[in-house]
Design goal:
There is one protein chain. The protein is α+β, with helices and mostly antiparallel strands and about 80 residues long. About 35% of the residues lie in helices and about 15% in strands. It is built from two helices and two strands, in the order βαβα. The protein is elongated and about 50 Å long.
């Protein structure tokens, strides 16, 4: 019996070796979790990866880059 398992990956930090380490991934679904986990808040604000000092366009571009990196490593089932 295979139970579903969901794993959040930070795609800007994912390397090709992770794909090999995960094997066939039967029952494993990968979820995009941000892009690189970098802080983009102003110094006096709470840490934030998406938003903060960046425009909506910058945030969407980072998420798109993460999607592209995830697909480059894991293929279309990213």
């Amino acid at each position: 019996m295979v139970f579903p398992f969901y794993w959040s990956c930070v795609p800007g930090l994912v390397e090709d070796s992770l794909e090999k380490a995960l094997g066939d991934r039967q029952g494993l679904s990968l979820l995009q979790h941000g892009y690189r986990h970098e802080n983009h808040a102003a110094p006096e604000m709470k840490k934030i990866e998406l938003g903060g000092k960046r425009s909506t366009e910058e945030v969407l571009a980072a998420l798109e880059a993460g999607k592209n990196n995830g697909e480059a490593v894991f293929g279309r089932d990213w």
